[in-house]
Input
Amino acid sequence: MILARFKKWMRPDEGASASKSTARNRFTVLNASVLLAPFEGELAAIRARVGVPPEHWRSLYQVVFENYAALVQRLPASESHHHAGAGGLLQHGIEVARYTLDLKQGIILPRGEAPEVQSRAQDLWTYACFTAALLHDLGKPVTDQRIALYDARGERHQSWSPVHGPMPVGASYGIEFNPNRVYRRHERISPLLAHHLIPDEGLQWIASDQAVLHNWLATIQGDLSNADAVGEIVGKADGLSVARNLSGRTNVQLPTAKAKPLAPRLVTGLRYLLDDGALPLNRRGAAAYLDGDTLWLVSKTTLDRLRTHLIEEGQPGIPTRNDRLMDELQQHGLLVPNGDRAVWLCSITIGDWQKQLTCLRFQAEQMWSDQSRRPEPMDGSVEPVYAESTNDTPPESADAPEPSAELGTAVNTSERDSIDGLPLPFNVGTQLEPEAETDTVTVEETAAPNAADTAAAPPSPVDEPKPTLHQGDGQVTGMDPSEDAGERFLAWLKQSIENEAVPINTAKARIHVLPEGLALVSPRIFRDFDAANWGHAQKRFQKLKLHRKTPKDENIWTCRATGSRKQSILKVILIPDAVATLGVALPPPNPSITLLDHVESH
Output
């Protein structure tokens, strides 16, 4: 009975006159009690964990679940990632709340306070964790989805957003995904929706304690590095729910559900990385190239990023070797083989840029079944060179081995600009290295000229690389590509921060906020801007004299990045008072990054 009711609840409504495609995407607005019925067991477990009197449960907890269900209805949590089916957002929210309260059981808050203070505040901290768990993804219908309400005749009536409050019961609605959605922007929306979810007395309770309020606000906005214990608990709970869903271990109301095989999980992970830009597409030095109906993915770069992503999500049974991942994809017919092998050696050409890379070949429809969601093909070509004699990456390939902190191997600080343990929001596909080619970055390469490189000194072939004749990878709205490279980089940097197109203060980020200013990881940030002419761009930017020099009158500062188990060295260019210089808003400083030159000079 429970399984049948859950399956029926998950299906869209099928009107007699509706077309088949419309029926799959048309739903009726239901009462909260109907929506919550399949989750009776979860709610009972949560109530036992909370342990408050019945009247407090009804006024502070039950009402929040009812408001949440009424607001999210049967919306999905994502398009092709976790909890992507009808009702996925409701299921995910309840799961995260359950895991959050399970994890909270073993933690006494606030940390470091006297026992009597902790005893008085326990219920408040529990409530903050619980409400943050339900709010953390509530902004997705605002930024990532387009919901339309329909009238009794089935005609589109108006657009709807959670900011309007719940949809009217009995109305029908349809769901589409916003093709221009920006990764993680939904996290900014949660505070706007809190009053639709939490009763006034609950909001007043949270606001009564400044420490609770600070941690709660940071958590619901995705700033887990500044959310202390609340962010830690909710982040872990979110990861457990995601891993549970992607591995096939769905809601506990479905005891017959089996673990999802590895192969479809690999494809789901690839779709996610492509969709969120973690695998750069169709540019010089990218990791992915769409040539007509064929998608070419640079083999080692893609498989390393895919493995790291799945492990970060907590998914079980992920092979540690790339050949195992390739075998899994090949055995299930998910990639186009090269004879009896998985990899192809390809010559990739974009304008005047050409590179031979080992690639995996997929049909584009494997990643984008919806033709309207498929990106435009590359402005270039991919030509297979010859059939590989082995699945191992040949030495001339771009896929040179790279250490993986996620797998517990040693970190080569001269080759990595970030490590595990830095503030990294849960389930975020971190920025991929911009070059798929072999590009071993050393400290010597990042060192820029010191004070001897004055603005009056004319450029020469020795101290300033001659730019190649092509348009840079970093496109700048409203600027001609022939304008000064330093000015274009500055405009690109500002636009990228304003549009949230670059990660800041996360693992793999090229930009970190420090108390001393904005740190630009060099030369990586300039390679992101222009892979071919990065040296020239860095030189011209330094001529603008917006950066601060070290006590030794050098352009490049040294930073230490401290993780939970490892440390790494970053070489950066420092822009003091970047808010005024760039005119952009920046997050708080990254506590895991220390400016060594600054420390040593005092």
